[in-house]
Structure formats: C-alpha cells, structure tokens
Design brief:
Blueprint (H helix, E strand, L loop, with lengths): L3 H13 L6 H33 L6 H45 L3 H5 L3 H43 L1 H48 L1 H6 L3 H54 L4 H42 L7 H4 L13 E8 L12 E8 L4 E5 L6 H9 L6 E6 L2 E2 L5 H6 L1 E4 L10 H5 L9 H10 L3 H6 L17 H15 L3 E5 L7 H15 L3 E5 L11 E6 L2 E6 L1 H5 L4 H15 L1
Helix pairs in contact: 1-9, 2-3, 2-5, 2-9, 3-5, 5-6, 5-9, 6-8, 6-9, 8-9, 14-16, 16-17
Length: 591
Amino acid sequence: MIATAPASAAGLRAVLRHVRLDRLALAAAGVLTLLEVAGTLGFPLLTRSIVDRAGAADASWHGPALMLALVLLASATASAIARFLTARAGLALDAALKEATVERLVRAPIAYFDTSSSGAVTSWVVNDTKAVAQVISREGLAAASAALLLVGAAIVLFATDAGLAGILFGSVALAFLAMLPVVLTTARIATRTQDETARLSGRLSQIFAEVRMVKTFGAEAREQRGVAASVASLFALGCRSARIEAALSPIVTLSVTLAMVTILAYGGMRVAAGTLSSGTLTAFLLYIFTVVGPLAQLTAFVSRLSAARGASARLIEVLDLPPETDAADRAAAAAAVPALPQILAFEGVRFAYADGGDSDGATIAIDRLTFAPGTRTALIGPSGSGKSTLLGLIERFYAPDRGTIRYGVQDIAALPLAQWRARIGYVAQSTPMVSGSIRDNLLYGIDRPVGEQQVAEALAQSCSATFVAALPEGLDTPVGERGVLLSGGERQRIAIARMFLRDPEILLLDEATSSLDEENAHLVLQGLDMLMRGRTCILVTHRMTGLETMDQIVSLDAGRIVECGAPDTLLLGMGLYRRFAHRQFAQEKIA
C-alpha cells in the first residue's frame, strides 16, 4: 500500500498536467465536506447531551434536540451539494481527458498505430479516462473526507474517554490489518481486469472490422473460441473479486460487533459504577459507525487508486506522444509551401522501420530520384520492394533516417505539415470511407465551401454521376460502415471524385485498380486519366495497362532503384520493366 499510493498519485498528477481540473468546484466541495464532517462528528456529542439531560429529567434537552435537527439538516444539505459538485467536476475531467486523449491520438505519428491495437486504444479512451477521472475527483474527495472523519473522531473520543477510545480504535486497527491483504489483492485483480477488457475490445474490434473475412474463411467458431476465452478470463477475475469483496463484509461486521459488544460491556460496568454517563456511552456506540464507515471508504480507495495506476500509465503514454509535427511546424519562421509546383526529389534517402519492416516489408535506399511537376511516374516491382513505403515518405507518415526529400530547394521536413499534406491527394487500393452518405465522403477533409455544381462536375469527371443518380437517395445515400454498401469500383470512383474536389498538386495512387474487374477498372482509369492531367502523379501498380503513357518508370527491388527511365527506353533493355511487359503480353495472349 505504501509503495502503491505514491506511485499512483504521481501518475495521476502527471495526467493532470495535460488537462484542466475544475479546482474551484472541488474547493467548494471540500469546504462543504468539512461542514459535513463537522456535522457527523457533532451528531454523537449532541445525542450524548440529549440522553444525559433526558435521563436526568432536565427539560433543557429540547435545545440540544433542535440543534441536532439543524446540524443533521445542514450536514445532509452540504453532503448533497458536495457530491453534486464532485460528480460534475469528475464528469468534466472525464470529458477533458477523452478529448485530450483523442486529440493526441489523431495527431500521433503513423508509426504509433503500426504497433497498437485499435480496440485497445479505444478501450483506453472509453474506460481508462473514466477510471482516472473518478479517482481524482469523487473518490479522492471521499477518501479525504473519510480521513478527516477518522482523525476528528480520534481527537474527540480520546479527549472524551481514553479507555473507551482505545477499545474502539483497537478494534478498528484489527479490522484494518485483516482487510489490508484482501484490498491489495482486489487492486491487483482490478488491474488485470482492465488489461483483459482492453484485449477483448481489441479482438472484438478486429472481428467486426473484418467480419467478411471471418465469414469467408469460416472462422466464426475460431473467433467465438477466442472471445469465449477472454470472457471466461473476465468471468474468473470477476468471481475472484466478488469472493474477496464478500469476505470483506463479515470482517467489517465482526469488527463492528466486537467493538460494540466490548464497549457495551465495559461502558455498562462504568455506567453502573457511576464513572461514565449513559449519554457518553451512547455517543461512543454511535461513533463506531462513524469510524467504521470511513475505514471501509479508505480501503476501497486504496484498491481503486492501485487500479487507476495502470490506467494513468496508459493515458500518460498517449498524452505524452509527440504530435505528428516537427520543429518547423512549431517555429514562427516556418517556411510556407511554394505557391508554384516544384520538382520533388529524393537525395541520399535511407529509411528502415523500427521493427525491421511492415506490410510493405522493405527498407529504402535511394540516392537520387526526381519527379518533375506535371509528370507521371509509375513505381513497379515485386511485393515488398518499397513502393508503398516511398509514398509514405512523401506523405511524411515516416521520416527518413538519413538523407533529404526536397520540394524545390526546400526540405519537405521544413514545411508545415498541414500545408504540405494539403498539396497531396492519395487514392489507395482499398478505398477508405467513413460511415455516412456519399456526400459526407465526397466532402471529407475539405474545409472550404463546395457548391452543388462543383460536386456534379467531380462526379461527372470521375465517371460516378450515373451510378449516384440511380441510387435511391442520390448523394444522401448511406454507404454503410467502411463503404460496404457500395461496390469496389463505386468506392474507387467516389475516391477519385473526392480528389477532383480536393484538387491536389501531387497525386499518389497506390494500386488504385488492382482489385477491380476489367469493366470497373476501365471506368476508374478513365476518371484517373482526367484526374492526373496537369498534376505530379506517382502511381504504384502491378498492371502494365497504361504504363506506356508514363513519363518515367521506376523499378524497385529491396528498396533500391534497379532501373529508371521512359517506357520506350526501358523496353529496349533487359530489366524488370521489360520482363513485366513480356509476362503481361504472354498472359494476355493465353487469355
């Protein structure tokens, strides 16, 4: 307990560096809690006065009785307002933590998400923020109130009668020592439960995101078994926690009973001997509940604080993530992206993934590669040769380990990130779409007003107008989660229409037609041909169709350029492009 609390408190303080805590509300709640504590401590004393005066047939007990009623009313009112203020401050802190966590996550480098489960990250945002907010606000104030009650009760009781106070707090100390191992075990279980919940969230997120793959491969039973194992683990942890919590109840009950019986026996003898008033004995009996309640609150707080330690550690990891910006973005003198199109050039670039590779599987080693404004470049090569990695470097999803990528004379790392990416359009093989309507997807990420005429022109240019017009609700037709209500070709054409509206200067195409049938590929290529006009275009492809129209072909292998030149020139050589072209020609001849 001694080691856990400071570590947890330090973690919670670190979390609070990133968000604003409503200290005014908590201060007001603290003052009201002091009034509540004073009322709770004064209640047994006023009761003692009433009992003693009533027992002596003294009619002046009416005054203390009225005072007791006023104290109880004031204490209850202060308690209610304090609880509302702490609950409100906790909710505000929870909301602020969620916003701060999401803000850091959406601005985090892509590399962070390469090794993080989306389901686990979601669990952190939803569950961990709530756990931390509750401990800092509501649980923290309740623990402070409990500590004040214990200290106040000890002072009052020892000042009133040291013998009875010793018996009462001796019983409390025994109860605390009995509960402490149980509470620490509960804390460890709570931490394991949080971790298992995050793993389950990650698994469920993966299942539902790829439910078609699950069904295609008949993996329903496999996924059910995996989820069942996680659920069984959570069930076992829950049962273990329930057993421990159930054991706490008789410990508290026995300690209260022991204290009560002992005080009644000892106090009764003293009342009979005339060394103790019946009112004082009554007050001590009432103080038993005043002491035991705070003890239970403090032990519960220790458990929750320990559980919150893991949550705060995960949140600090996220909140301390450096945003996907750099010194240039933070500096006041950051250079603006040139207004006119410039040559994009790789110079001595070296890059390797931190874990040794990713789905692209390649490191990059490019001494010199240029993309002139308005030209079309195709990147070809076997899977894992570094084609998509090269696009990721241009997008600044990753930074080169060595070397420079220049736009004109400027290093792109020295350009404001938002301005740089605003110049780039990206069309991927599996078109990402957001849940919503076709209009929502067309205008996604576009922060300027877009008129209906512009939307209509973009649909026409991307060969999308006909199929959109045939939909029941036109542009307002829902696309479903990840666009599942549209075909692959329709999604690609919507992505191309979005690029027309975005109007990028540099266009990156990553296998934009590889998963489409010939008819849809033809329509998409028509839209792409119009989209590429006048832009610096870099496309990754395994198809040879249309490569003869490229200004240059760059063949990559193991992250290195093995040939680069115009299509006609490369066809005369014996390199990768010629082999690809002959292989494609042979396949078409067989077909």
